[in-house]
């Protein structure tokens, strides 16, 4: 689904990401971990064509993302609040995204019903602009918006950060459900090794922009990652 070839990104002569080869098959739940500055957001930003590579390319379903927009209809993401439209209410934003993804208001309303628990009565029918929601509630809205219209690829940057424990547990369930019951390719970055090993079947570790581990998740993975980061 996603393939990376000789990809690098440098700023002022300093290379912050350098991935020779990486293939993420369709339907995989892929976790990206690494310390601060390892290059996780840089990788996702390149994948979403938000920044240009210094060399190499990423293909999403065989489309070079920096050369064509054709990957956009089947790819969706929540990286940060800049993905939201602050002067819309959550409903207005969901309908707007739904419209982009060929969903009617009724489709979106039906879709949102399954996330009532996740929203915990803090998002819908509040007559509040997205910019006035708390950071955690903005994130909830952004993550669910990213799932509207059943995109083939969903990219979430640190989805668990800033969420309360109840919401983190509910989010894990949502991600596992997506993974197990749909063919969605899910890419998640996280600093939470427990969550990421629980929801992702494969974990790649980035260190200073390089992939240093590529693990199919098993019972032993959490321990392996903890030992690695405890070095
Ligand atoms: N516009 C920029 N100009 C210069 N350096 C940049 C720029 N954007 C990112 N970097 C650098 O690229 C490196 C990788 O940053 P990135 O945000 O991808 O890391 P990360 O793994 O997402 O980190 P974190 O866990 O802290 O979110 C960092 O050293 C960062 O300072």
From TrEMBL:
List residues of the ABC transporter domain: 2-225
Question: Keywords on this record?
Answer: ATP-binding, Nucleotide-binding, Transport
Q: Which domain of life is it from?
A: Bacteria
Record-linked PROSITE patterns:
ABC_TRANSPORTER_1, ABC_TRANSPORTER_2
Work out whether the entry's keyword set contains ATP-binding: yes
Q: Which SMART domains match?
A: AAA (SM00382)
Q: Which GO terms describe its molecular function?
A: ATP binding
Listed InterPro entries: AAA+_ATPase (IPR003593), ABC_transporter-like_ATP-bd (IPR003439), ABC_transporter-like_CS (IPR017871), ABC_Transporter_VariousFunc (IPR051782), P-loop_NTPase (IPR027417)
Q: Which PANTHER family match?
A: ABC TRANSPORTER ATP-BINDING PROTEIN ALBC-RELATED
Q: What is this protein called?
A: ATP-binding protein
Q: Which organism is it from?
A: Mesonia mobilis
State the organism's lineage.
Bacteria, Pseudomonadati, Bacteroidota, Flavobacteriia, Flavobacteriales
């Amino acid at each position: 689904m996603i393939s990376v070839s000789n990809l690098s990104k440098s700023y002022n002569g300093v290379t912050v990401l350098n991935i020779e080869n990486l293939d993420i098959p369709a339907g995989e739940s892929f976790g990206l971990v690494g310390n601060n500055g390892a290059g996780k957001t840089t990788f996702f930003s390149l994948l979403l064509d938000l920044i240009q590579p210094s060399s190499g390319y990423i293909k999403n379903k065989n489309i070079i993302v920096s050369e064509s927009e054709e990957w956009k209809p089947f790819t969706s993401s929540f990286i940060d609040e800049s993905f939201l439209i602050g002067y819309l209410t959550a409903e207005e934003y969901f309908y707007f995204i739904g419209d982009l993804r060929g969903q009617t208001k009724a489709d979106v309303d039906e879709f949102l019903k399954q996330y009532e628990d996740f929203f915990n009565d803090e998002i819908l029918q509040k007559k509040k602009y997205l910019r006035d929601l708390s950071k955690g509630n903005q994130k909830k809205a952004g993550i669910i918006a990213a799932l509207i219209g059943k995109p083939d690829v969903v990219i979430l940057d640190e989805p668990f950060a800033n969420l309360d424990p109840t919401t983190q547990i509910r989010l894990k369930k949502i991600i596992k459900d997506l993974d197990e019951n749909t063919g969605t390719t899910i890419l998640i970055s996280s600093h939470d090794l427990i969550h990421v090993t629980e929801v992702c079947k494969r974990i790649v570790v980035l260190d200073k922009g390089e992939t240093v581990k590529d693990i199919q998740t098993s019972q032993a993975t959490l321990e392996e990652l903890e030992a690695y980061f405890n070095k």
